[in-house]
Amino acid sequence: MTSATDHGRDLYDAAHSTVVDKVIEFIEERYAEQISLRDVAEAVGYSRCHLTTKFRRATGLSVTAWIIRRRIEEARRLLASGNLSVAEASELVGFGDPCYFNRQFVRHFGVTPGRFRATMRPE
Predict the structure, then answer these.
(1) Do 47 and 92 fall within a single domain?
(2) Separation of alpha carbons 111 and 60, rounded Å
(3) Cα(76)–Cα(106) distance, rounded to whole angstroms?
(4) How many domains does the chain have?
(5) Tens digit of each residue's pLDDT (9 = 90 or more) over 2-52
(6) I need a labelling partner for 94 at 20 to 30 A (CA). Which of 2, 28, 54, 72 fits?
(7) According to the model, what pLDDT value does residue 120 have?
């Protein structure tokens, strides 16, 4: 038997996940562009503060951290293909600063993008 409290929680969770889904969809479509928390919040109709709270509760990450993670994952995929330089991959995924890209890549994967790319090349 479902109580009124459980039903209310289900409605909250559904609304919560809908907003998170919209945020993720927005990021997927635009991660390679220069997007900010303000851009994302405006796209889904929430204040930056409210959106940050909802998103972090649902995903464990901030919106900005999600964007960075998405960019880094795509850069890793591009570098693994072996067809692009580190600078080209960095630019294609939306990092304007190659040094920042390098720091984020090391933070996420424990190796520089150049070293990662070198290990992906066939001998």
Answers:
(1) no
(2) 24
(3) 11
(4) 2
(5) 444 443 334 344 455 788 999 999 999 999 999 999 999 999 999 999 999
(6) 54
(7) 82
Residue 99 structural domain: 67-120
Q: Which of 121, 75, 82, 117 is nearest to 100 (CA)?
A: 75
Handedness of CA 32, 33, 36, 39 (dihedral sign): negative
**Residue 86's CATH number:** 1.10.10.60
For the whole model, what pTM was predicted?
0.81
User: Dmax of the chain from CA atoms?
Assistant: 63
Count the neighbouring beta carbons within 10 Å of the beta carbon of residue 38.
Answer: 11
Compute the chain's Rg from CA coordinates: 18
Q: Tell me, what CATH number does 58's domain have?
A: 1.10.10
Q: Are 19 and 51 in contact (CB under 8 A)?
A: yes
With a CB cutoff of 8 Å and minimum separation 6, the contacts of 75 are: 89, 90, 92, 93, 95, 101, 105, 113
CB atoms within 10 A of CB 5: 8
